Amino acid sequence: MPERVVLTLDVGTQSTRALIISRRGKILHKEQIKHEPAYFSLQADWAERHADFYFDAICTVCKAAREAVDNSLWKRIAAVSLTTIRATTVLVDQKMKPLRPAFLWLDRRKASGMPEISAINRMLFRAVNMEQAVIEQWKVSPVNWVKENEPDLWEKTYKFLLLSGYLIYRLTGEMKDSVSAQVGYVPFDHRNRQWMARGSLTRFLFDIEKEKLVDTVEAGQQLGHITQEAAQATGLSPGLPLYASGADKACETIGLGCIDPSTAALSLGTTSTVTFTIGRYVEPERFVPAYASMLPGASSPEVEIFRGYWLLNWFKKEFASKELAQAQQMGISADQLLNERLKEIPPGCDGLVFQPYFTPNLTMPNARGSVIGFSDIHTRIHIYRSIIEGINFALMSGLNTMEKRADVKVEELRLGGGGSQSDEICQITANMFGIPAVRTQTHEVSGIGSAMAAFVGLGVFKSLKDGIQHMVHRQDVFEPNMQEHKIYRDIYQNIFLQVNDKLAPLYAKQKGIMGNKRSRMKAD
Questions:
Q1: Torsion angle (degrees, nearest 10) of CA 492, 495, 500, 506
Q2: 236-246: b or e for each residue (b if 16 or more CB lie within 10 Å)?
Q3: Phi, psi (deg, nearest 5) at residue 87
Q4: How do residues 292-348 score in pLDDT, each as one tens digit?
Q5: Neighbours of 137 (CB within 10 A)
Q6: Does 142 share its domain with 211?
Q7: Which domain holds residue 64?
Q8: CA distance linking residue 100 with residue 78, whole number of Å
């Protein structure tokens, strides 16, 4: 019989892709549509998109794929899988219609109130110096902002979904989602792979009634079938099974073949992350959850750099008009030209050190982006390389923390995401971490991991570990230059790790000044 294939839908921040993937991990066809713009902002710090925008994007790429491939390949599609961006929230009414635009993971609006914390819990949080972090987490939770600012909408909310759950409903009519997709401001217990119990310590941070949440299933289990309505909209065959996989980073980790702590997955994407898979629950940082891996019973401690390789797009837009024009004349991408010019700049960027915390995280709530060390020898390309080095320094810090907490030693990196397409970036990464960096057969690793779960569901593979043997293939190995690694290690230990601590008081003052300025402007 003709070999069965899987159609994977990969919905990212900046684009949506439809990938037809074989059981050997080969992408037989790819369609992609850019999200232009990636989001809209009605106010500062807001990032929204209508949820149906993403379903429409799915319809567009599916129809394009249907028209582009021959009928024999299309008929070999035996199942569908879906992976999406994380922490993107959709509120729907009883008819499953969105009540408002979705909150993207980039949205940083805050509720103005304060959480109700019991005296005992407040003492506990203070004892471990986490009270302010907990309050900040409550403030940025979309459910608390909606309850405070749009209470009528909250009363009408029937289900509180992540984007993956909403798209699953649009495709199958079922109100379900994957265990490994529950990353965001939702009350999910990653240790036990289920919704938090009512009395859980941090349940109050996102106090969503259980009836407003959907059932979750493990990767490889069936979520439902493509409905007739969805088939007409997408061009998919009605009745095709849709199998659970995970959110984008969970799928990337599996798609890179990272199944134990000896190998770490580095995602050089819009959001940059470092993670590994471990067979027990280990928090990456104190009070920061380790997410439920797609592997049964395993967890994935992770450190995330918000707006990771998005920063390169920011750089190109704001500073690289000359290179953009030159690349167009040469008939190549601006990324190719800029990455080639990375070779002109020595390790450490002649003293330029970049802090990539444009969006602060839970444990560094006041952090900001910064660059130190400017002199008259520095050029735009110095800044470009310093951004790449700064993201890597931040990921090194995260990995070192996770290694200590889990008592493990990572021996190899696996690289995914758009940044991994660059040989220069891959080599810089190997040099900085001081261990080999491996690139697999495609940078579309999230799609590979998601498709693997569908093949498990179809019975093609016994397990995800079995699937990795067939679908993940080492292609390029970047061995570290240990002399350069010594330079980077010196900068990392003696400069990078100290910058935030030195600037933190100034960040806090700056935050207060700007907050007072906005308050005065609103009053006027």
A1: -170
A2: bbeebbbbbbb
A3: 50, 35
A4: 999 999 999 999 998 889 899 899 999 999 999 999 999 998 999 999 999 999 999
A5: 20
A6: yes
A7: 5-244
A8: 35
